[in-house]
Design goal:
single chain; 287 residues; mainly beta; Immunoglobulin-like; 3 domains; 5-stranded mixed β-sheet; 3% helix
Length: 287
């Protein structure tokens, strides 16, 4: 009673109450729905409803049902109903529960960019809210779907628990901008996941004379699924000639890297990108 009395002393303004003999409140009220509270006795009084994020006050005629219109009470949580003032006040309790119709989704998808062929590399979590942004905690089916160009659609149907559902999915074998969609009932939310080529899978180089220099070029560099490695990826060329070594970093352009190196007979030339090393060429001169 000490907590309730302190709350009454803080909240209640003076009210003229003739006789207050009890309250009859619903056990639960769906958020935003209309409802009634029955009072007993005679005379006038002040009724207060207080809960998480909301407080309502009404001057009432005791013995007459008190009506609350749709939209007046909308924040889910536990509420106190107080009729009267001080220690003589009547106090009742009830819960405002979320509406069971989904009206909006909170959808978290990550990462926004990842390599192709990554097992369980994409994760998505969906949160379901009613029209008043209350988290709907009753279980309901949520569909999470990943669709990218040239790849099969991946679909997971997960039942929400405490208002949330989540899943993991594989990235596709081919690069694409995939649409990751969460759907509950008629409500959906979409995020874009960029699936990009992975690391180079193999590296092959060729060499040919170019005036007094030697032109060395890679074959088109691809990942293990055949996707072209993005421009700007670095290929490191190395030329060993006797005790000297020449190292040059060259970015890919349209899938290949080209460099002119000194044409030294007997030189060994190789290339690498990331952890992938290419073939070695021994230049003996000639054309």
């Amino acid at each position: 009673m000490r907590v309730r009395e302190a709350l009454l002393a803080y909240l209640l303004l003076p009210a003229s109450v003739a006789v207050a003999q009890g309250l009859q409140v619903p056990h639960t009220v769906p958020a935003g729905k209309s409802f009634e509270i029955a009072t007993h006795g005679s005379g006038k009084g002040a009724l207060i409803i207080v809960g998480p994020g909301q407080a309502l006050r009404r001057e009432v005629q005791l013995g007459t049902p008190i009506s609350f219109a749709a939209g007046e009470l909308y924040s889910a949580g536990h509420y106190l109903v107080i009729l009267g003032e001080g220690a003589s006040a009547d106090v009742a309790e009830f819960d405002v529960i979320p509406d069971h119709e989904a009206k909006s989704l909170g959808f978290l998808a990550k990462p926004s960019r990842l390599p192709v062929n990554t097992h369980n590399g994409i994760s998505g979590a969906v949160y379901v809210f009613d029209a008043y942004r209350n988290l709907i905690t009753v279980p309901m089916p949520a569909t999470l779907e990943l669709a990218g160009a040239g790849s099969a659609v991946q679909t997971r149907i997960v039942t929400t628990k405490n208002g949330m559902a989540w899943t993991t999915l594989d990235s596709a074998a081919k690069e694409s901008a995939a649409r990751f969609t969460a759907r509950v009932g008629n409500i959906s939310s979409t995020r874009i996941i960029n699936q990009v080529p992975g690391d180079p899978c193999s590296l092959s180089i060729t060499a040919k004379p170019n005036g007094t220099r030697l032109e060395v070029q890679t074959a088109p560099v691809r990942d293990c699924s055949g996707n072209t490695i993005p421009d700007g990826t670095i290929v490191t060329f190395i030329e060993l000639a006797g005790n000297s070594q020449t190292t040059v970093d060259v970015p890919l352009k349209q899938g290949v890297a080209t460099i002119n190196l000194p044409a030294i007979p007997g030189a060994k030339i190789s290339a690498a990108s990331g952890v992938v090393a290419g073939n070695e060429i021994r230049w003996e001169g000639g054309r």
